[in-house]
Design brief:
The complex is a heterotrimer of chains A (245), B (257) and C (288).
Chain A (H helix, E strand, L loop, with lengths): L19 H35 L3 H15 L3 H11 L8 H7 L3 H27 L3 H9 L4 H16 L1 H14 L11 H12 L3 H28 L13
Chain B lengths: L1 H8 L1 H6 L10 H26 L4 H15 L3 H14 L6 H27 L2 H9 L4 H31 L11 H11 L4 H30 L23 H10 L1
Chain C lengths: L1 H18 L7 H8 L1 E6 L2 E2 L3 E3 L5 E2 L1 H13 L2 E6 L4 H7 L5 E7 L2 H4 L2 E3 L5 E10 L13 E5 L4 H10 L7 E5 L2 H9 L5 E5 H8 L6 E3 L6 E10 L3 H17 L1 H10 L17 H4 L9
Parallel strand pairs in C: 1-5, 1-6, 9-10, 9-11
Antiparallel strand pairs in C: 2-3, 3-4, 6-13, 7-13, 8-11, 8-12, 8-13
Helix pairs in contact in C: 3-9, 3-10
Classes of the chains: A mainly alpha (245), B mainly alpha (257), C alpha/beta (288).
Chain lengths: 245, 257, 288
């Protein structure tokens, strides 16, 4: 098909030819794997960091703050490269060689790098959510005899997560899109696959178009799920205005 | 460790590369890219942002669709789109401008949301008051709404500048010699300096970003305005209707409003 | 809702049709009229084309490009390309000449033409730690790195399949520097790249590495890429490169980079040449 005078003929057989199809399928699987694993890990680490940051103890509070300040102010790409090239070299006891010989370390490095990057942002959001929990609720919890951990578990975190659902969802969508950066460390995810096909066949627009459709579809579905959840769990949104104090 | 100080003493190379004798590289290039893309992006963002709140449905939805699609595509893919697609339509651009355009498109979509939120944050009465004094709609927009909206948007812009600055490091993948590529080049030319090079890279990015986030915080405090934009859902929900979705989903979304 | 989508689509197509154009005149005329020739170089493959530690864009290809522009009598405009775009940009005419260590391959012939003769003769080696891998056969099942955009990604498994059934694991990096770093750290067992690039990337660390089996496994004749179906332009560039070989310009640049006192001394003779047993050291050019 040739329309107008684009210097390009679309050849839609390319994405469905072997081995290109195989690369694309692996790419889709890996992209989803990276996105899901980093989302879960960064949620856990981010929440832990947020709790540390609102803690009264300096030895919890300060390290968490330093972590967030360092990570937030350096691009995610740097963390990917760091975890791929530098991090294994710093490990003791022959772990370096073991890690380096692991065939899928590029994927692991991608996951680690994205997790580190994302968890700092998640911790910021969760912290804002915790701080937005009305004082009265915590006082009520205290007076009903809950200890500090129980307060967190039953009152503060559930409320915080409801308030921060929209920004948290935004972060996770961001994280999903950032998984494309893993191509920098040779992880064969979807963007890598499109570039690989481009570089071998010199026809990248077909696969780039397909990949774009994939990313847009997933990101929009994620957004819709978030909207649905938000509606379901809705609490007074004005409390958001107390965030980030 | 001595390599680290040696590389730190070489700060000029990380900052500007061989400039002015050779093309500008290094950290300054990141800053230039961020400024250019935000500047160019802003002009489109104002149009898109106004389009998003237009009373005409076709303008509103087409602007929304553009914003949605760009916001849900990875930056890297946007860069590749322009990298490979611009030449196909006959546009002959250098790599630098290619990077600027793709970053601008990305920035425009995000800034459009900031602009929209800023304008919507101005109380409705302001517009009505302007109209009742005999101003035309564009007049009221420019002389009443924009100055107030801009003040509201300022903190969001500063923090967006921060994230855009970090995003500029992505263009290293298409071969632009920014700070990331400078660090990698040094670790290539002198392999035993790799730790030092990465450390310098991190320090360079950190200083600029920290300054920016510090400025954003100060600005927020001073103006008493929060960066609401960071807490908004990514996708503009009412525009989802435009995309080819099953009927049930559409109904669900429309009842949303 | 459907109508809005059609409207938007029409507008977009209209825009595209305005931007695009077709040029009827030959490229040679176009270049002469324009007064500049756009030459694409990479920037991450020493010693062919790279950024040195002064921030200077330099290399064998870059010097050769300047010489070609000088002979053409036009100004030079250098365009940055990479392994992925050095062919694509030529195909869509973003650049007039691609001088970015392009090995001549058949699949690339679809998209571009080469000036005659190939300007640099080298070949791909599997580069690995000394004494670790004895022969190509042992590479089966091992991890092999390549540059993204290099034809070795498909060619290397085919080569290895000749000797063993075990398939190698292929990884592709954004540039040779990252690939060599991965090799040095043991993330990959071998890296496949052209011999002289490997030597330059490894630099002083090269003593610890060697070519697997001690030899080149795939010939790499670097060609100057020119757009497809531009016969006049291709002839012109061919004659220029031949003239440069005759009048010593080529030799001067060669000595600067690969001579015994050059930046990256090369033990093998990489000049385009004819079979030695028949022609001696005669260069590969055509009589007038």
């Amino acid at each position: 098909m040739k329309f107008f005078n684009l210097r390009y003929d679309f050849d839609w057989s390319i994405p469905f030819r072997e081995p290109y199809l195989g690369w694309l399928i692996t790419g889709v699987k890996l992209t989803l794997l990276i996105a899901i694993v980093t989302a879960i890990m960064s949620l856990l680490i981010g929440t832990a960091l947020a709790i540390m940051r609102v803690s009264r103890f300096k030895f919890l509070n300060i390290p968490a703050k330093i972590y967030v300040e360092i990570v937030r102010n350096i691009p995610g790409l740097f963390w990917l490269l760091f975890f791929y090239f530098i991090f294994p070299q710093l490990l003791p006891f022959g772990l370096t060689d073991k890690i380096n010989q692991y065939a899928y370390y590029s994927v692991v490095a991608g996951i680690l790098g994205l997790t580190v990057d994302n968890s700092a942002y998640v911790s910021d959001i969760v912290r804002a959510g915790i701080l937005a929990v009305p004082r009265g609720h915590i006082e009520a919890a205290v007076s009903s005899g809950l200890n500090r951990l129980q307060q967190l578990r039953y009152i503060i975190l559930p409320e915080a997560f409801r308030t921060i659902l929209p920004p948290l969802g935004t972060r996770m969508i961001h994280n999903f899109k950032n998984s494309s950066l893993c191509m920098a460390v040779a992880a064969p995810e979807l963007t890598w696959a499109t570039q690989q096909i481009e570089s071998i066949t010199f026809r990248g627009l077909e696969v780039t178009l397909l990949a774009t459709v994939f990313y847009v579809t997933i990101a929009l579905s994620m957004a819709m799920i978030i909207i649905r959840l938000e509606k379901k769990w809705k609490i007074d949104m004005t409390s958001i205005s107390k965030m980030r104090t | 460790m001595e390599f680290f100080f040696e590389q730190l003493a070489n700060w000029k190379f990380y900052l500007i590369g061989g400039f002015p004798k050779y093309p500008l590289t290094g950290l300054t290039l990141n800053i230039v890219l961020a400024f250019l893309s935000i500047g160019i992006g802003l002009s489109f963002a104002i149009i898109l942002g106004l389009g998003r709140i237009s009373s005409r449905w076709y303008i509103r939805h087409s602007c929304g669709a553009c914003v949605d699609v760009v916001r849900s595509t990875p930056l890297l893919l946007i860069i590749f789109w322009f990298y490979f697609f611009l030449p196909v339509i006959g546009a002959k651009l250098s790599l630098f401008w290619c990077a600027v355009i793709s970053l601008s498109v990305y920035a425009a979509a995000y800034q459009a949301e900031i602009v929209r939120a800023g304008i919507l944050a101005v109380p409705k009465g302001q517009m009505e008051a302007g109209l009742s004094t005999g101003m035309s709609k564009p007049q009221a927009l420019i002389s009443i709404i924009f100055p107030q909206a801009f003040r509201m948007m300022l903190p969001s812009f500063v923090s967006f500048f921060n994230s855009m600055f970090k995003n500029t490091s992505t263009v290293y993948i298409i071969g632009i010699v920014d700070l990331t590529r400078t660090g990698i080049n040094i670790s290539q030319l002198r392999p035993n300096r790799i730790y030092a090079a990465y450390a310098c890279m991190a320090i360079g990015f950190w200083i600029v970003c920290y300054a920016l986030s510090f400025a954003a915080q100060k600005l927020e405090k001073r103006l008493g305005i929060l960066d609401y934009e960071s807490y908004k859902p990514e996708i503009c929900r009412e525009d989802l209707v435009l995309l080819p979705l099953p009927k049930a989903v559409k109904r669900f979304l429309i009842t949303q409003k | 809702m459907k109508r809005s989508r059609v409207v938007v689509l029409m507008a977009a197509l209209l825009l595209v049709s305005f931007i695009s154009y077709a040029s009827a005149e030959s490229l040679l005329d176009e270049v002469t009229k324009r007064g500049t020739v756009r030459i694409g170089h990479g920037n991450s493959t020493p010693p062919m084309n790279y950024i040195n530690d002064k921030g200077e864009w330099t290399g064998f290809d870059v010097d050769l490009g300047s010489a070609i522009a000088e002979k053409l009598g036009v100004k030079i405009e250098r365009v940055l390309v990479d392994n992925k775009t050095r062919v694509a940009f030529l195909a869509n005419r973003s650049i007039d000449i691609s001088l970015a260590n392009i090995s001549q391959t058949r699949s690339r012939e679809d998209q571009m033409d080469y000036a005659e003769p190939p300007y640099f003769w080298t070949g791909k080696i599997f580069y690995a730690k000394k004494r670790k891998i004895k022969s190509v056969k042992d590479l089966g099942g091992k991890k092999i790195g390549v540059d993204q955009g290099s034809n070795a990604f498909t060619a290397a498994p085919q080569e290895i399949a000749k000797y063993t059934d075990k398939k190698p694991e292929m990884l592709s990096f954004q540039n040779s520097a990252e690939g060599f770093l991965a090799l040095k750290q043991g993330k990959i067992d071998a890296y496949s790249q052209d011999a002289q690039i490997m030597a330059a990337v490894a630099g002083s660390l090269g003593v610890e590495y060697e070519a697997v089996g001690g030899s080149i496994w795939s010939a790499g004749l670097y060609g100057i890429g020119v757009p497809e179906n531009e016969s006049d332009f291709r002839d012109k560039i061919s004659f220029i490169i031949q003239d440069m070989m005759k009048d010593g310009t080529y030799e001067k640049i060669y000595q600067k980079w690969f001579g015994p006192k050059g930046t990256a001394p090369l033990s093998i003779n990489a000049r385009p040449r004819l079979p030695k047993e028949t022609y001696g050291d005669m260069l590969y050019t055509w009589p007038d």
